[in-house]
Amino acid sequence: MCLMILALNGKAIGSTIPANATLDQDMFSVSPSSDTEESSWRMIFLPSQDPFTPLLADPRQPTTAISLLSLTSQPFIQFNGTFGADVGIVRWEAPGGINASVQVGIMGASFSRFAIIRSSTYLEDADYVIGLPVTFRYQSFSGRIFFYHESSHTGYNYTTLMDVSKVSDFGNEILQVIPSWDILPFIRLYGGAAYRVSGFYYYPSTADSTIFIGGLEVYGPEMLPLSARSYFAFNIESRGINGFTPDEDFQVGLLFHRPRSYLQIRPAIDIYNGNSYMGDLLFEKEHYVSLGVYFDF
Fold first, then answer.
1. Contacts of 46 (CB under 8 A, 6+ apart)
2. Domain tally, the chain
3. 5 in a domain, yes or no?
């Protein structure tokens, strides 16, 4: 995953490039080329960050994380384990650097939910996402077009133990389009939609296959001795298969970054209210508070 550290001081990334809410402070990945005569686009292979940075409070954002959950509907401990990454393959940049760029990459993750019941650990559900994102940025505007495969697999022992109705393992191909706007140097606003292009089982209509998503991210000033920022993020999703009822995710935490690298670590508290985002459990209502650590690279 790529860095999302703010640069409030415009001089930190070049006097002609305005600071924005989601680019890091790595001088080598943000600034224009050192060749002052360069006036055309350049190609960069395996770039170290993405023009469209990750959505902090989106529970389906491919990243690497572990978090403990406290669900109001369950008396036992649960935890999420996610392993994923956003890898850039090639980026085309204008002389302004990443602030005017288009990138193609590969992005995916494994999302797993576990339950600890009577000293035993059970897999509740495991979802897999893999696809090709095309991302772009022009100054404070950015966007992501993401075509990906999603599959879901329920843990058999857990569903048997809990007498949960197993919906069915399924797979879908989904097209997602999300534009984003850094409306201030420390505030990011985004919103878009996704559509299940193909798949099987319980998506019989166009409305059932449609998903709307939006959110807000607010960043605090950088704490220089720690190379960290506080942040607040809110994500809302509305799925046709659930009658377009809102699924809300609120997250607050600290964002630590390693200078001149694309690694960031985010300890955070997350509050979720809505239908489960785990594929085979998406008709289950969930209300939980979680404490977790997220690794974006």
1. 87, 88, 89, 90
2. 1
3. no
Cβ distance 129 to 163 under 8 Å?
Answer: no
198: containing domain? 10-296
Distance CA 11, CA 16 (A): 8
Q: Rounded to an integer, what distance in angstroms lies between the CA atom of residue 41 and that of residue 290? A: 44
pLDDT of residue 207: 87
Q: What is the CATH number of the domain that holds 45?
A: 2.40.160.40
* Mean pLDDT computed over 171-185: 92
| 149-152 contacts, C-beta under 8 A, 24 or more apart | 149/173, 149/174, 150/174, 150/279, 151/127, 151/279, 152/125, 152/126, 152/127, 152/128, 152/278, 152/279, 152/280
Check pLDDT > 90 for residue 136: yes
Cα separation, 242 vs 238, whole angstroms? 8
> Does residue 66 form part of some domain?
yes
| Whole-number pLDDT of residue 40 | 84
3-state SS, 134-190, equals EEEEECCEEEEEEEEEEEEEECHHHHHHHCCCCCCCEEEEEEEEEEEEEEECCEEEE
pLDDT of residue 162: 57
For residue 50 the two structure tokens come to 């993405």
Predicted structure pTM score? 0.83
pLDDT, tens digit (0-9, with 9 covering 90-100), for 15-68: 333 455 566 533 334 444 444 445 688 999 998 888 998 899 999 999 999 999
Alpha-carbon 197 to chain mean position = 21
